[in-house]
Specification:
- The chain has about 425 residues and is α+β, with helices and mostly antiparallel strands.
- It has two domains: about 60-200, Tetracycline Repressor, domain 2, CATH 1.10.357; about 230-290 and about 325-425, YmcC-like fold (Beta Barrel), CATH 2.40.360.
- It contains ten helices and 16 strands.
- A 16-stranded mixed beta sheet has the order 1-9-8-7-6-5-4-3-2-16-15-14-13-12-11-10.
- A hairpin with a 7-residue loop joins strand 2 (about 230-235) and strand 3 (about 245-255).
- Helix 1 (about 5-30) crosses helix 6 and helix 4 (about 60-80) packs parallel to helix 7 (about 125-150).
- The longest helix has 27 residues, at about 125-150.
């Protein structure tokens, strides 16, 4: 078996670094800066002490990296929202809803705690504190620009835009921080629509608002034309790792009186993901996970005005209020078959994440870029493909790439995700 390439080795190192960072967030947030040691983080991450020094030389360097990541969350979401194809008021709503939704998990409290520690703990370098100040200032400047644009359109009240930007920032951060504390102690029905409440305070009552571009009846995708066969894929992290195999199929069905597509992904272990999406607009209606013939042990329900996430293995049961065009992470490979490749270079989507890959539960914005055409070889054959690249503004280093044949049917033939490669092996 051939050794790993330089690129594959780097991918493994990058993944281990992210695992260390995730462990560091938890340890620093729970123990505090003074009581945390590098060896504690290494043990939590399952890594050798020596490997840690490949990435960071001191505890101060680790903490500075955490502060940079934590304080960058709001700025990254603000940049994403400011580019969204919507009115200024809707863009402010989307920013608020993404930030607030991310507070509905334990991980989100780590970000808040890290920033608070950096500002009040002794022994923290001034340069580290300046990272926070710089990111906050950049966020407020972007918000102020959106407010100015909204005022020119008559959508936002005519008050000092700088003060309105500061008020907006304070309300979003305050509601996010309070929500994470409420979630830690209570089974609380959370609401993405808190973002709508915030922007309503900015709205000009004399302005008749246009319809949101996130209305459920609109869709940026062409009609889905799934292949009737079962697709067999293999996934491998590196040439040294043994590949895993899974099968995917899509069939048209009727559920609760509505036409839907039923998507099934089955692993070798017998674990199955079954997703139902509306046959018209491709929006999800239910995602469920089963082992063998057992009942669903983990599911996500999409109603007209809310999303219910039930994940007992992680202690999660959340009901999140929402109205608008919202997709699910698990259905992305299938709805992208209907991407308008010939006419659209970029697209933005709002996704629900249930904690997969260790990310916080909540609402996420992703950007999709049509990267052009190229030839791809897989065990199933050679394909002339379109390549789509997906990115998240908060987790900038995580890129997902899909290759779809130019000729229909357009099931994906290759995917790259977190260092792993999934390829089409067989069409049954």
């Amino acid at each position: 078996m051939s050794p790993r390439s330089k690129e594959a080795n780097q991918l493994v190192l990058d993944i281990r670094r992210e695992q260390f960072i995730a462990a560091a967030f938890k340890i620093f947030a729970r123990r505090g800066y003074a009581a945390t040691r590098i060896s504690d983080i290494a043990a939590a991450a399952g890594m050798s002490h020596g490997l840690i020094y490949h990435y960071f030389k001191t505890k101060e360097e680790v903490f500075a990296e955490l502060v940079k990541s934590a304080s960058n969350v709001f700025l990254a979401v603000t940049k994403y929202g400011s580019r969204y194809d919507a009115s200024p008021l809707d863009r402010l709503r989307i920013i608020a809803e993404i930030v607030i939704s991310m507070s509905h998990s334990e991980e989100s409290t780590y970000y808040l705690n890290i920033v608070e520690q950096a500002l009040v703990s002794e022994g923290i370098a001034e340069m580290t504190k300046e990272i926070i100040v710089k990111n906050v200032a950049s966020s407020i400047q972007l918000i102020q620009s959106l407010i100015l644009e909204g005022q020119k359109r008559g959508q936002i009240i005519c008050e000092d835009p700088q003060k309105l930007a500061l008020a907006y920032y304070s309300m979003v951060k305050g509601m996010s921080g309070m929500q994470s504390k409420i979630d830690a102690f209570h089974d609380f029905t959370a609401s993405f629509s808190d973002g709508a409440i915030i922007v309503r305070a900015l709205g000009n009552p004399e302005c008749r608002q246009s319809k949101s571009l996130d209305h459920r009846k609109t869709s940026p995708f062409a009609p889905l034309k799934p292949v009737s066969n079962t697709l067999v894929y293999r996934t491998r992290i590196s040439q040294k790792e043994e590949a895993t195999v899974h099968r995917e199929s899509v069939t048209k069905s009727v559920r609760n009186g509505k036409d839907v597509f039923r998507i099934v992904t089955e692993q070798e272990s017998g674990e199955r993901m079954v997703a139902f999406i509306n046959a018209g607009n491709l929006l999800p209606t239910r995602i469920e996970f089963r082992t063998g013939n057992e009942k669903a042990n983990h599911w996500i329900d999409y109603k007209d005005d809310r999303v219910i996430i039930h994940y007992p293995q992680r202690g999660i049961h959340k009901e999140l209020q929402w109205s608008g065009r919202l997709y699910d992470n698990y259905t992305v490979p299938h709805i992208l078959q209907s991407y308008p490749f010939e006419s659209v270079d970029k697209m933005q989507l709002l996704l629900i994440m249930d904690g997969i890959f260790g990310w916080p539960v909540g609402l996420y914005g992703i950007e999709i870029m049509n990267a052009g055409r190229e030839t791809v070889r897989t065990p199933a054959g050679e394909y002339d493909c379109y390549r789509l690249e997906l990115s998240n503004p908060v987790f900038e280093k995580i890129k997902i790439r899909y290759w779809f044949p130019v000729d229909a049917p357009r099931y994906y033939v290759r995917r790259e995700l977190l260092g792993s490669v999934t390829e089409l092996v067989e069409i049954q």
